[in-house]
Design a protein that fits this description.
The complex is a heterodimer of chains A (109) and B (114). Chain A has 109 residues and is mainly β. Chain A is 0% helix and 56% strand. The chains are: A mainly beta (109), B mainly beta (114).
Chain lengths: 109, 114
């Protein structure tokens, strides 16, 4: 069974601080995605990483895929209240996309 | 707006009843996925259809069934409802098969079983 773990489960920080959240699995995926979900809405795709060791930047967000394609991290620089939400990693294989339990981020003004 | 439409947005029903949730994928997307999200279980994969055919099954109960129609919309049928079935049910779509992982989600259907 493919499982994704995320840490930390909850994170509350002050505006302007940096943070990193982690996504780990014992399985190899063909690609890995990060999504952000706000209360009452569906998850929204932020990024896809495919190649082991790949690093992608999206404004203040930096995503890294592990060399073995089993883990990933999301780093946010100078967090803002608008970054508040549930961050989900997802692993894709041929026939399914499974999600981790998420990291709930709260950025306090 | 993701382009994925789900109806109804909210549904309240009683134990033992049956409900149908509907999903229209983004224009051009051939794959439809159903997920269940509850506070204690996270986002759980239920089932995927590609161009009308079942492609993959996850943790879908026997009381639940789904199908994808020729016009590519999909329905998720939940029967003999139990209190524990209360959750958000999301539909997502993608252009091709699952390996890209790039899904576009609807806003969900919130089911409350009393």
């Amino acid at each position: 069974t493919q499982l994704l773990e995320q840490s930390p489960q909850f994170l509350s920080i002050q505006e302007g601080e940096n943070l990193t959240v982690y996504c780990n699995s014992s399985s190899v995926f063909s690609s890995l995605q990060w999504y952000r979900q706000e209360p009452g809405e569906g998850p929204v795709l932020l990024v896809t990483v495919v190649t082991g060791g790949e690093v992608k930047k999206l404004k203040r967000l930096t995503f890294q895929f592990g060399d073995a394609r089993k883990d990933s991290s999301l780093h946010i620089t100078a967090a803002q209240p608008g970054d508040t939400g549930l961050y989900l990693c997802a692993g894709a294989s041929y026939d399914k996309v499974i999600f981790g339990p998420g990291t709930s981020l709260s950025v306090i003004p | 707006d993701s382009g994925v439409t789900q109806t109804p947005k909210h549904l309240i029903t009683a134990t033992g009843q049956r409900v149908t949730l509907r999903c229209s994928p983004r224009s051009g997307d051939l794959s439809v996925y159903w997920y269940q999200q509850s506070l204690d279980q996270g986002l759980q994969f239920l089932i995927q259809y590609y161009n009308g055919e079942e492609r993959a099954k996850g943790n879908i109960l026997e009381r639940f069934s789904a199908q994808q129609f020729p016009d590519l919309h999909s329905e998720l049928n939940l029967s003999s409802l139990e209190l524990g079935d209360s959750a958000l049910y999301f539909c997502a779509s993608s252009v091709g098969s699952a390996h890209t992982g790039e899904l576009f989600f609807g806003e969900g259907s919130r089911l409350t079983v009393l």
